Amino acid sequence: MKKAMYPGSFDPITNGHLDIIERASAVFDEVVVVIMQNPKKKNHFSVDERLNMIKEVVKDLKNVSVDAGEGLTVNFAKKNGAKALIRGIRAVTDYEYELQQASANMFLEPSIETIFFLARPEYSFLSSSSVVEMASNNGRITGLVPKCLESRIIERLSTK
Ligand code: ADP
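^ thats the input. predicted complex w/ adenosine-5'-diphosphate below
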């Protein structure tokens, strides 16, 4: 059984993330989406809110589970039996950052591979931060986040 872990902030989950999850779930036997907590990062949604949102949108994908973790991503992956880390690449700017992260992870844990999925062109501009920016300023986020989360995200961010 080949298990992969998709780590990220998912603050909040977007259709770009969901597309990667669906594509990874078709390639690996098992995929665990993990909200990695970085104490240095200021998040818009709590870990519980993010966990609930992701669980809701992956509920029909039978080989996908959701978790939260902290510390080094490779340590979490190893402890959970994941052989690969999934990451997404939208543009060259992502590549530079991802190359650095993947190389550091390779140094820390050579037995775990990082596998990159290219963003679909229609999601290549899409990020959690752009969703937050749009939703907090009454912008339209239809098509950018899963339909079932749209009003929840808008409500949550507009009350801030
Ligand atoms: P992080 O804070 O770890 O970068 P994110 O939640 O922003 O977490 O993203 C997790 C992963 O998903 C990253 O590899 C990122 O490049 C990728 N990703 C984010 N948005 C998209 C998108 N629209 N399409 C494809 N991959 C994406």
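The radius of gyration is 15 Å.
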